[in-house]
Amino acid sequence: MNHLQGKTIVVTGVSSGIGSDTAKLLRQQGAHVIGVDRKDPLLSLDGFVKADLSEQAAIDAALRQLPAHIDGLANVAGVPGTASLDLVARVNYLGLRHLAQKVAERMPAGGSIVNISSILGYEWPARADLHKALAETPSFEAGLAWLARNPVPHETCYQYFKEALIVWTLTQSQKLFLAQGVRMNCVAPGPVFTPILGDFVQMLGHKRVEADTHRMKRPAFTDEVAAAIVFMLGDDARWISGINLPVDGGMSSTYV
Ligand SMILES: NC(=O)c1ccc[n+]([C@@H]2O[C@H](COP(=O)([O-])OP(=O)(O)OC[C@H]3O[C@@H](n4cnc5c(N)ncnc54)[C@H](O)[C@@H]3O)[C@@H](O)[C@H]2O)c1
């Protein structure tokens, strides 16, 4: 029993893929789910806020429509590296971080934030100092200004901002847990059958994809990833904070 009955959980990226299945599973377990996405949802929800999570003003407007009490936040919305560098930075990192910081203020002890990283963030230790410096920037605007001074190449920006997300989550989580009893973790999927899987193939190139194919059984189904996110949101994970949990059918273990 993961004690999600009656809890209010916000799920971003709710209109497709992993976010959609996360919302469905949460509702099956009795949670009150409010979705956020730039596209309309294709499933039943308890509430929905349409918002472009790449814009701080749009996130602030969404926050005004979200409840004053929120028990959980699943930050699932994301774009692949085939999108522009600016969009990847804004959606996958700056906007996610801004929403998480503001929602955390509304959470009681026992609250949980789950940020969807990726197996492609596994090389974060190689750039830990840069990611820590970005993590220290206090706001969306300050993050943008830092990135203007420390440019990121477009070809690897998806990996860069997933790495940065892992480092931000790990470095901020204990402050949150000690001060408020709110947990924050990442879930790191390997390849998943969703509409953006083809974008990852384009982004990584066929050589890398071919090599990775031999490291895994198959891409995950969305419900396999959603189950881990729901576990991390619930009370069964109450002593798990500040981790990046791979949900990749063992694929990341093959990089050792
Ligand atoms: N599919 C994979 O292989 C894979 C692997 C590792 C990590 N991930 C991560 O999982 C998360 C979910 O991806 P998915 O595969 O379910 O993709 P998806 O495209 O099926 O879903 C992403 C959702 O995010 C929403 N979104 C994108 N930009 C937005 C914005 N600016 N404002 C509001 N909503 C926005 C989209 O409308 C969509 O509903 C992403 O963070 C992605 O990076 C995916």
Describe the secondary-structure layout.
Blueprint: E1 8-12, H1 17-28, E2 32-37, E3 47-50, H2 56-65, E4 72-75, H3 85-104, E5 112-116, H4 128-136, H5 140-149, H6 157-180, E6 183-189, H7 197-204, H8 206-213, H9 222-233, E7 244-247
Parallel strand pairs: 1-2, 1-4, 2-3, 4-5, 5-6, 6-7
The structure holds nicotinamide-adenine-dinucleotide.
The secondary-structure class comes to alpha/beta
Secondary structure: number of strands: 7
Number of structural units classed as domains:
1
Please list the strands of the largest sheet in the order they lie side by side.
Answer: 3-2-1-4-5-6-7
Q: Gap between N and C termini, in Å?
A: 35 Å
Instruction: Report the CATH C-level class.
Output: Alpha Beta
Query: What general outline do the C-alpha atoms trace?
Result: globular
Quaternary organisation: single chain
Write out the distinct hetero groups bound to the structure: nicotinamide-adenine-dinucleotide
Mean pLDDT level? 97
CATH third-level topology: Rossmann fold
Return the CATH architecture.
3-Layer(aba) Sandwich
Q: DSSP strand (E) fraction?
A: 5-15%
Low confidence ranges: none
The CATH superfamily is NAD(P)-binding Rossmann-like Domain
Q: Write down the secondary-structure element order.
A: EHEEHEHEHHHEHHHE
Radius of gyration: 17 Å
Main β sheet profile: 7 strands, parallel
Helical stretch tally = 9
Helix content: 40-55%
